[in-house]
Amino acid sequence: xxxxxxxxxxxxxxxxxxxxxxxxxxxxxxxxxxxxxxxxxxxxxxxxxxxxxxxxxxxxxxxxxxxxxxxxxxxxxxxxxxxxxxxxxxxxxxxxxxxxxxxxxxxxxxxxxxxxxxxxxxxxxxxxxxxxxxxxxxxxxxxxxxxxxxxxxxxxxxxxxxxxxxxxxxxxxxxxxxxxxxxxxxxxxxxxxxxxxxxxxxxxxxxxxxxxxxxxxxxxxxxxxxxxxxxxxxxxxxxxxxxxxxxxxxxxxxxxxxxxxxxxxxxxxxxxxxxxxxxxxxxxxxxxxxxxxxxxxxxxxxxxxxxxxxxxxxxxxxxxxxxxxxxxxxxxxxxxxxxxxxxxxxxxxxxxxxxxxxxxxxxxxxxxxxxxxxxxxxxxxxxxxxxxxxxxxxxxxxxxxxxxxxxxxxxxxxxxxxxxxxxxxxxxxxxxxxxxxxxxxxxxxxxxxxxxxxxxxxxxxxxxxxxxxxxxxxxxxxxxxxxxxxxxxxxxxxxxxxxxxxxxxxxxxxxxxxxxxxxxxxxxxxxxxxxxxxxxxxxxxxxxxxxxxxxxxxxxxxxxxxxxxxxxxxxxxxxxxxxxxxxxxxxxxxxxxxxxxxxxxxxxxxxxxxxxxxxxxxxxxxxxxxxxxxxxxxxxxxxxxxxxxxxxxxxxxxxxxxxxxxxxxxxxxxxxxxxxxxxxxxxxxxxxxxxxxxxxxxxxxxxxxxxxxxxxxxxxxx
Length: 718
What we know:
Layout lengths: L6 E6 L6 E6 L23 E5 L6 E8 L2 E7 L9 E3 L2 H9 L4 H4 L1 H8 L4 H21 L23 H11 L11 E4 L2 E9 L4 E7 L4 E3 L6 H4 L20 H9 L6 H15 L7 H14 L8 E6 L5 H11 L3 E2 L8 H9 L2 E4 L7 H13 L6 E4 L7 E4 L5 E5 L7 H4 L2 E6 L18 H24 L7 H17 L1 H19 L7 H13 L8 E4 H12 L6 H21 L4 E5 L2 E6 L1 H10 L2 E5 L5 E5 L2 H11 L5 H6 L4 H11 L5 H10 L8 H26 L1
Parallel strand pairs: 11-16, 11-17, 12-13, 13-16
Antiparallel strand pairs: 1-2, 3-4, 4-5, 5-6, 7-8, 8-9, 9-10, 14-15, 18-20, 19-20, 21-22
Helix pairs in contact: 1-4, 4-5, 8-9, 8-14, 9-15, 14-15, 15-16, 17-20, 18-19, 23-25, 24-25
């Protein structure tokens, strides 16, 4: 009790419905009165009051906004008042009332006690009336009313059925941009890289996100900080049961709380040595690619396009061992092949995991088709659309962009669409193969796996920046697209590693292009066309007929077939093939003569097609021009050299020839040695116009001339 005989106590004033200290005269049982005695600011004002006309009784519902939200309560106009309730925002207030039939539950005691309503029919009628009142209230206030004092005096109004509240709600919803779903497994959000994992709670598992800025967010059911604080909008929790291995808690603690770091070059070398321990490859540089490929599975979402890795293996070559090494070290490895075509997309969106398939040949057709479709479509960040029966066929778009590694014995047949999206590694049975079996559960893998998680959080910006700046002119667009992520990681590790892997990839492309062309229909068609135009002028037209070309192909490819029926059947197929191919070469004019399809071809056009197919013109031992496979870099140089007269070289370099460029560069950079100068000129793209061997020779010649002049000048001065 205060000195003036008044009591002071925290309570909810029954008049203004505000929580505050209020002086009041002593009452029996120390119960506060209805009104505040001395605090004028808490007199009944600044709140909204609406009449409820149930059974013609005078009942009211009241809303008082304050700086934190809203209080709302019910009264009968005298002394009987419902318990005040609190809502943080108009949206919450609307949710409290507008959820179907829950208004009775929300204020059930008030309705029963204040209104005396007990039967279901009257409760439903009252609920509808209250909902309309809430609409009226929300349409009256603005978004800013939740953070400022409202000066509107108490009013009594009847129910309004206008749609202002709907407009208000739509406007408030439009204030927030729609956020796409992301994978909780890993990705980039708000300028940081994150990795999802699982921790064990008292009753269940809890999703956790660890970020590159060394923060950690937990997805508690009651308070999901991953969504609320980190702002990640994800659809599926982390399907940890699908993954074989994950990031250890001890390593997470070291990253978040102990400023732990790793050396990416040292980590790379450890993976290379472990792979060499178990695997043998004809080209030792293949181990470098595999180590980088394992690392790429962590950096995967940074790149707009990615190849998949395919091991074409002999039986007993150790292909399962190689898959098990991926299982031990790759990001969120998933080795089960028993997934449905529908579940694989949910698993990938949830975990961002690396799909590993051993013995692709043995999979059921459904799984085979799902994996092939995944390779074809999701080598870029395209979404996968699926309509699931248990969701009434509503289509859903899944983020299914992740790494995939698989092997088989029998190859992929003539599936060109799939093969051009993968990097194929030949794994042969080796006579010195080591009798070692990879056990992913072996403790040797765990510290490396943990460090790989740290590595991506530590180096992701470096790798992304290197990828964005990396430019290589020696490859066609698709070939560069497939290897560029690997080269970006290699360049961050070490310049020497980068050049070794670059050379390995060039050799790989050459080997892949060396096909058995003897029975290749398109190769033989182009060879025949070249023989017909090689002695003509560049644009001199030559008319050819589909039937004649098919006859010539039949004679050259199938001389041993004597059966007329078989020859007729093959000839029909060849006619269809030649017609389709010539039609696809859109640069040639077509037409009909006496019912036969014809095309007007010319030398320059045939050369363009040859280059686009990876073929070139070479001299045979007897001096005759033949069509043969050439490396892409040489084909580009051949094309650029032919176009020298078009001044494209001068437009690019401001000089008439590569020799002028080399000479001037050496003259302007006396501090650099020949090796650095050669590397600089390669970066400048000069090897698009001359071969690396010719460039080395040119640098030597120009270097000697520049320094001979310098020595002569110094001798004259002396």
